[in-house]
Amino acid sequence: MVKIVLSTDINSWYLKEIGMFFKRSQTYSYKQTSKIIKKSLGISYKELLIISPNELEKIAQSIDENKPANFEEDKKVLIDVYEKFRNSVSSKRYINKVNLKVCPYCNRNYIFNFTKNKKEEATAQLDHFIDKSKYPYLSLSLYNLVPSCSVCNQRKSAQNIFEKPILNPFEDNIHNHISFKSSEIPSRDELKNKNLDFFSEERTKITIDVNTDNERVEEHLETFNIKGLYNHHTDVVADLYKKRIIYSDEYIDELLTKYGEIFQSREELIGLITCGYMNEEELNQRPLSKLIKDISEELGLR
């Protein structure tokens, strides 16, 4: 659900990291792999490694139209190269370089690296946006490697994105296309009514409004079961109801005045209250931030 915004130096960094990966490899060389790419696709390996998402899709479609003669032999080598990359320090460095804390497909699970016994490990899995089994030539292309949680990686699996197109997190942000809603958001005055059963399952049920005609959005929601998974987070909605009762606009203003030296803005204070982020650019910092932001805004917590 989060668009992956890469640093400006990512292309040159990735090429160097791939070079280091091959130098450490005892099985394959960069030169050997480059020959396979050049012979089968007619482009340099260097170009293929950092080619744009749109161009990657064009290359994949060209493979469908004219499969290379040595496809099966190439596939064995290239998949093995990728498997060695996945288990190498280079893949951990790549995940760290992307600087995502939350899965870009679902915004529900943390995916940051951690250190164990002085060794860097990753909680993220690398999903190939364009399936590596069908398009092995793209298995190490930078803009085909999406760090994701294990749940989303398994759900997407080898899905053919040309038959069932979803949003590419390197190009789009599903947050721009949907809004989370609660079935029935009452006013703060209603919430304060002690006889109001506003924590009922029906009242806190989560729905998703699709506010775009982008055909990939519905398929994205279906592929990652976003609607089904998010309806297990009604407790988050109920907690936001409680917080809205406690934090009136006047109380928020009072806190901002009293602790102005702590908070840079009202938005930052609201983030503390809701345990989320109100800024679109920060939604990849904490799970469920998009849900929290949308429901908070519905409740007037802004």
Task: Write a concise keyword list for the protein shown above.
302 residues; mainly alpha; two-stranded antiparallel sheet; 14 helices
Question: In a nutshell, what does this entry contain?
Answer:
The chain has 302 residues and is mostly helical.
List the secondary-structure elements in sequence, H or E.
HHHHHHEEEEHEHEHHHHHH
Percentage beta strand: 5-15%
User: Tally the helices: what do you get?
Assistant: 14
**What is the end-to-end distance?**
22 Å
Strand order of the largest sheet: 1-2
What is the percent of helical residues? 40-55%
Low-pLDDT stretches: none
Class of secondary structure makeup: mainly alpha
Number of strand segments: 6
Question: How large, in whole angstroms, is the Cα Rg?
Answer: 23 Å
Overall pLDDT confidence: 90
Shape: elongated
Sheet with the most strands, sense and barrel status: 2 strands, antiparallel
